[in-house]
Amino acid sequence: MEISEIMTEKVQAGSVPGTISSIYEILREENLSGVPIVKKQTGELAGIITRSDLIKNPDEDQVAMVMTRNPITAAPDEDVKSVVRKMINNNIRRIPITVDNMLVGIVTSSDITNKALWKIENNEPVEKYMVHNVPTVWDKTPLPVAYSISNFFNFKSVIALNDDSKASGILTETDFIHESRVVEEQTVHNSSVSTEGDKWTWNSQSVMYILKNKLKFSDKLVKDVYGDKLVSVTRKTSVKECANLLKKHNIEQVPVLNMSDEPIGLVRSSDLMRAMIE
Q1: Residue 149, φ and ψ in degrees, nearest 5
Q2: How many Cβ atoms are within 10 Å of 35's Cβ, its own excluded?
Q3: Buried (b) or exposed (e) across 214-237, using 16+ Cβ within 10 A?
Q4: Which of 198, 229, 255, 270 lies 20 to 30 A from 155 at CA?
Q5: Of 266, 249, 263, nearest in space to 162 by CA
Q6: Are 264 and 240 in contact (CB under 8 A)?
């Protein structure tokens, strides 16, 4: 199967020069996790920018300062498995498809799962591919605290637990983006210089005002943000069944629960891709 058979042809893209606010707008309106960046004058591919890039660089205003330059690309006639290997080897979840450096499409890990993997009769259990160490938070945790926990573990999602320590929901980077905005914060720094003489003392003080952007989250609790029904799997759920669940619910990841509904891991589209080449 060629990658052109499953790629998205109508690509939402940002441009350079351009502002970060325009990228936030695209991600929120189109519910995307990242977009390619093209040169405004020529239309050539210039880079790629993701939700993670935005969250990690709230103080930057220009797309060119945040985007990843010279991204990994693929040609429309490349084999799907070849593109999957590129994504896994480079630890990325999306690849622009180009012809002569002109953007003609994009493929994501979700495209691989939803349009290719679910068709394969793979009955291996997902425990072979799941991530075991996943951060969890109480579902009554304030959203800014949940984000700090996610950021501390350098993980793109957190699983929420109810009062009985059972999984009740999941928050992803998309949720954090939707519930945040970039605000300007001013800090004041004082410095003083003293010169002493025999009969007098002269003091001077300089004040430096520093403006910096930061992400500000809503005052909601975790349970106010995630959906009503948690989609989950067990460690023995097959790869095919899990891929079908992701496709059916249009999601990128599902918690893995034990028989007591306690989380024991997480399966993401990017994890399931490995089933295509192993």
Answers
A1: -65, -45
A2: 26
A3: ebebeeebbeebbeeebebbeeeb
A4: 229
A5: 263
A6: no
For residues 172 and 253, the answer to whether their CB atoms sit within 8 Å is yes
The answer to whether residues 10 and 85 touch, using CB atoms and an 8 Å cutoff, is no
First to last CA, the chain: 17
| C-beta separation of 20 from 28 below 8 A | no
Q: How many angstroms separate the CA atoms of 236 and 70, rounded?
A: 40
Q: How far from the centroid of its chain's Cα atoms is residue 84's Cα?
A: 18
φ, ψ for residue 80, nearest 5 deg: -55, -45
Taking only the tens of pLDDT, the chain with its 278 residues reads: 899 999 999 999 999 999 998 998 898 888 888 999 999 989 999 999 998 888 888 778 899 999 999 999 999 999 999 999 999 999 999 999 999 999 999 999 989 988 888 788 889 999 999 999 999 999 999 999 999 999 899 898 999 999 999 999 999 988 888 887 766 565 565 655 555 544 445 555 565 555 455 677 888 999 999 987 899 999 999 999 999 999 999 899 999 999 999 999 999 999 999 988 87
All structural domains of the chain, each given as residue ranges with its CATH number in brackets, are 3-108 (3.10.580.10), 126-179+218-276 (3.10.580.10), 181-214 (no CATH)
